[in-house]
Amino acid sequence: xxxxxxxxxxxxxxxxxxxxxxxxxxxxxxxxxxxxxxxxxxxxxxxxxxxxxxxxxxxxxxxxxxxxxxxxxxxxxxxxxxxxxxxxxxxxxxxxxxxxxxxxxx
Length: 106
What we know:
Largest sheet: none
Order of helices and strands: HHHHHH
Number of strands: 0
Helix content: 55-70%
Number of helices: 6
Shape: globular
Radius of gyration: 17 Å
Structural class: mainly alpha
């Protein structure tokens, strides 16, 4: 398997995508465990054939990537000064409630 799609430069495996993502992050030595976990989860997803297990692993990977600031929601929260954990806890339902309240107010 090639490392990248020829026309887009997008990694073709989850493990390669995770390595690319964490490779551009500004991490500290304290982040080493989370980085290693993210990389291992990416590898496990690539090796897995069960859809259910892939979904479980993907959820765990997403949580690790959020903790590292490697998702759009985490980066947005960091830019606003909101802790990544707080941003990740907001659900779509929370967002709908917030918009409804804003409409009520004017």
